[in-house]
Design goal:
By secondary structure, the chain is an alpha+beta fold. It has 22 helices and 9 strands.
């Protein structure tokens, strides 16, 4: 019986994968043989009217009522190609209708490949602000091919596999939510990783890749070509994030070009191995992935993929232990950690993975000891939690107040007053250490200013705060309140995808946030753990408030020009480390939805799977199709 179930599961996966691939290629299966394959088209340069003195170049490709799966045109141009593509297609009524595509092509490419999937009469390509003497259009191509996509097959496999596991081992996964998180987050994270482009996709990813790569090659150095050097700098078009590929073919072409440049390009840019001071802990896992890829002799895209994959693995491991240990709010942490923005952060180069994971794990250890019905807490676990949180906060010291969480534990819960004082003094010293990395550079005039914010001056801003505390407090509160809904429950927190298209589920995700807050108090082990009391919640909100204030203040100092009543650069993702604690603060045993724990967890897992699978499929359609 056991083997029969396994065989049925394998058969269902194979049938699902094959069925999805055949359905996705249905037009190619039934297409007239004469229209299959590659059909070349010649461009016709249209009259450049230069209306209103606007320079533009327009070419037309006569298709002649043929089905077009993909359209490719080759060109010669030494810059980013921004084009407006108009497709004259035959609609369901047999009439010719037009649809337009605005496309920005990478400087690495000399061809543009777009998905059409229509029966087409003509295609025109208009390039604004470029005279015909500066660009050369070559032949166009219709690409009608049967394509089996590995990324789509893996998405199908992952969705079916997760559903099968939940069906066969439902009780196990519902009683071990941390294992359900690994199942969903790891598989969907890999799916997302397979679907995203080869160039910069994450926030400031070139800066983080620079640090991770240099840590990986420490203590040696190497030389790279210009195309690869673009991944280490913002001052380049080779890694321009607003010129993402328009199709899977373009993404593959970019990967081929980068791999060739990595192996055979003119290597004239020196890259030296180095550590990035207090930021180094945030890149250890990504650097390990890069190191392993280089030892295996992988291509450049392989190096990038391995760095991102190890980032995902570290994220899943840290959150796994945090959910496992956390005595209250397991579902809250699951939800926050399994949303599109969270998983995108997990698969890109940054230090946020370590920051969030270590803080979540530290909070879980502290709450487990504090809420346990044991008379005496284990000071070793509290010290370990403080160490882990301090390690995680080094790259972002704005979360330093959270290391003060053990202070809320009464002295009588320790074996002795000496041990109580020891834990609390260590927490205080850790807080002071982290704050010194944040405040001292500003006081000494050595703080790093982000020039993207303009003529910023951290020392001047600090002086402005100290001399006008009431004014600054008003500005701070105004910005916190204005952004609160989106930063805590909405798009800025859960749906933004950096340089990729914003995730969908605009209304479902906030509803899910309300759902976990209202139901979490029911999913609580009252046998082994005490309930939170009012003073606990007050301490939570004090630490959360201090951390949020530091987030805004750090960007006011480093990203905002002096003398203005506004704060630039703050994003919803900066709230993520404090969000689990804030949701636990909001949850109440007196106001909750009365629903069984198993049913609640199953609904939560399935909804998270739905959101992540939908996001992956959207990314596939944008960048892999």
């Amino acid at each position: 019986m056991k083997y029969k179930k396994i065989l049925i599961c394998i058969a269902l996966i194979l049938v699902s994968v094959l069925g999805v691939e055949l359905f996705s290629n249905r037009d190619m299966i039934f297409l007239n043989r004469a229209e299959k394959g590659i059909i070349e088209l010649q461009p016709t340069l249209e009259e450049n009217e230069n209306q209103d003195e606007v320079v533009k170049t327009t070419v037309k490709f006569d298709v002649g009522n043929k089905y077009v799966s993909k359209f490719e045109f080759d060109y010669k141009y030494n810059d980013l190609l921004n084009s407006n593509i108009t497709i004259g297609y035959v609609n369901g009524f047999g009439n010719v209708e037009e649809k337009s595509i605005t496309d920005s092509n990478s400087v690495l490419l000399n061809k543009n490949i777009i998905n059409v999937n229509e029966r087409v009469q003509y295609i025109t390509v208009e390039v604004p602000n470029v005279d015909s003497s500066n660009i050369q259009f070559k032949k166009g191509k219709i690409l009608n091919r049967f394509e089996m996509k590995f990324s789509r097959m893996f998405i199908t496999f992952s969705i079916v596999f997760v559903l099968e596991m939940l069906l066969l081992f439902r009780n196990y996964f519902l009683s071990h939510l941390e294992n359900a998180f690994v199942l969903v987050a790891l598989l969907m994270g890999i799916c997302m990783l397979l679907c995203v482009p080869n160039i910069k996709i994450g926030w400031d990813e070139e800066t983080h890749f620079n640090r991770a790569y240099k840590l990986a090659i420490l203590p040696s150095q190497e030389k790279v070509a210009d195309e690869i050097n673009g991944f280490f700098s913002t001052n380049t078009l080779y890694n321009y994030p607003l010129a993402q590929p328009s199709s899977g073919d373009e993404n593959e072409e970019i990967g081929t070009i980068l791999n060739d440049a990595y192996d055979n390009g003119k290597k004239k840019n020196e890259v030296k191995g180095w550590t990035s001071s207090i930021y180094t802990p945030g890149y250890v896992f990504q650097a390990l992935g890069i190191k392993l890829a280089k030892l295996c002799g992988l291509s450049f895209t392989g190096v990038v993929f391995c760095g991102r994959l190890f980032s995902l693995l570290s994220y899943v491991v840290l959150v796994y232990f945090a959910i496992k240990i956390l005595p209250i709010g397991k579902e809250i942490l699951f939800f926050i950690s399994a949303m599109p923005t969270s998983v995108l952060i997990a698969i890109t180069f940054n230090y946020d993975v370590v920051v969030y994971g270590c803080i979540a794990l530290g909070i879980a250890l502290i709450l487990r000891e504090y809420l346990s019905k044991k008379e005496v807490v284990n000071e070793k676990f509290l010290l370990l939690a403080t160490l882990i949180m301090t390690f995680g906060c080094l790259p972002k010291a704005v979360y330093a107040p959270l290391v003060l969480l053990p202070i809320m534990i009464p002295n009588k819960r320790f074996k002795s007053k000496e041990k109580a004082y020891c834990v609390k003094i260590v927490s205080g010293l850790a807080f002071a250490l982290l704050m010194s990395t944040f405040v001292l550079p500003a006081l000494l005039g050595k703080a790093q200013n982000d020039t993207r914010g303009g003529a910023v001056d951290s020392a001047a801003q600090l002086k402005s705060i100290l001399t006008h505390p009431i004014t600054y407090t008003g500005v701070l509160l105004e910005h916190i309140l204005k952004t609160f809904p989106s930063f805590v429950f909405g798009e800025a927190q859960y749906r933004l995808m950096a340089h990729l298209q914003t995730a969908r589920f605009e209304y479902l995700i906030p509803a899910m946030a309300a759902f976990v807050i209202l139901v979490s108090p029911k999913a609580y082990d009252k046998t082994n753990y005490n309930e939170l009391v009012v003073k606990d919640r007050i301490w939570f909100i004090v630490l959360i408030g201090l951390s949020v204030a530091l987030v805004w203040t750090s960007l006011y100092m480093a990203y905002t020009v002096p003398g203005v009543e506004m704060i630039n650069g703050v994003q919803g993702r900066y709230y993520k480390p404090v969000l689990p604690l804030f949701y636990i603060f909001l949850s109440s045993f007196h106001i909750h939805l009365n629903i069984g724990e198993d049913k609640y967890r199953l609904i939560l897992i399935l909804l998270c799977l739905l959101v992540l699978a939908g996001t992956c499929l959207n990314l596939f359609n944008l960048y892999c199709l």
